[in-house]
Amino acid sequence: MPSQRDAMRRFWQEHRNQGAEAVINAYAKAEMSGEVERRNNSSKRDPYEYARALLNDGLKKGWLSSAPPAAAIEQTLDDAARKDDHNKAESEHLKSETVSRLLLLHSAVLEELRARGVVRSANNPTGDLAEYLFCLAFGWDQQGNSARAFDAIDGEGCRVQIKGRRIHRRNQSRQLSAIRDLDGFDILAAVLFDDDFRVIRAALVPADVVRAHSSYVEHSNSYRFLLRDQIWELSGVKDVTGTLQSVQAE
Q1: Residue 143 three-state SS
Q2: Per the CB 3.0–4.6 Å rule, which of 21, 94, 198, 223 could disulfide with 214?
Q3: Edge to edge, what strands does the sheet with 141-142 contain?
Q4: How large is the C-alpha radius of gyration of the chain?
Q5: pLDDT of residue 121
Q6: Would you say residue 109 lies in a domain?
Q7: Residue 100 domain-assigned?
Q8: Residues 199/230, Cβ–Cβ less than 8 Å
C-alpha cells in the first residue's frame, strides 16, 4: 500500500490539470475505498478535509512533486482563478432559479452551516418570507420598520402584524416571535413553514383572539403566542393555507 504522500503525489500528477478539487476528490475516494490508509486519525477530519490539508502541506513544503515550490504555488493560483470563474457562473445561474428552489437551497445551506458550527439558529429567513407571501397573496401595503407594532395595512385600513415560524425537525415549537404590543394591530397573519420553508398552515387571527390566548413574559416585557392547531378552530379565525400555498407555488 502506498504511503499517504506517495498517493497524493500520484493524484497530483494525474489530476492537477483539472484543478485542486479534482486532486482532493481522487485522494478522498481512494482513502474511503481502502486504497490509501491514514496512519493517524487524531485530527478526526473527514477524508475530504484531510486530503485538502495534505495537498496544502505538499504545496507549502515542496514534497508534492519534483517541480519547485514556486511552480506548485503558481498551479494553485491557477486553480483559484478557475474556482472564482466557477463561483461567478453559479451566481449567474441562481438568478434564473425560482423563489421556491432558492429557498430549498437556502435550507440545505443552513443545515450544512449548522453542522459545521457556523450558525446556531434554524429560523431565518422566516419572518421576511412570511411578510412577502402574505402581502403578495392579499395585496397588502407592506410597511417600513418605523411601524413597530404592525407590518402591513390591508385594503380596509386594518393593521396587520405578520409572523412566521419554521417547524424544524430539531425544534417543533409553535411559539411565534415576541409580540410587544397587543393593541398595536388588528389582525395577526401567521404562517407555519416546514424544514424547507414550504407553507404548512396559515391563518388570519383577530387581535382579540390573540389577546385571549397570549401570556405575558415579564423578563422580555412581551407576550407569547403559540400557533397551535386549535387556533384554526376558534371563532373569527380564517384559514388561508391554500391561498399562501398557491402563491408560493407560482
Answers
A1: coil
A2: 223
A3: 141-142, 152-153, 159-166, 187-193, 199-206, 238-239
A4: 26
A5: 59
A6: no
A7: no
A8: no
By C-alpha distance, which of 67, 49, 55 is closest to 11? 55
Chunked into runs of 10 residues, the chain (250 residues) has average pLDDT values of: 86 82 83 80 75 85 64 55 65 83 84 70 76 94 82 95 89 92 96 90 97 95 95 97 91
User: H or E segment at 50?
Assistant: helix 47-61
pTM for this entry: 0.58
Give the residue carrying C-alpha cell 482513502. Answer: 31
Cell numbers linked to 159:
393593521
Which domain CATH number covers 157?
A: 3.40.210
Instruction: Please check whether residue 241 is in contact with residue 199, taking contact to mean a CB–CB distance below 8 angstroms.
Output: yes
**pLDDT on residue 68:** 44
User: What is the span of the domain harbouring residue 52?
Assistant: 4-94
163 three-class SS? strand
State the residue for C-alpha cell 493560483. Answer: 77
Residue 149 near residue 185 (C-beta atoms within 8 A)? yes
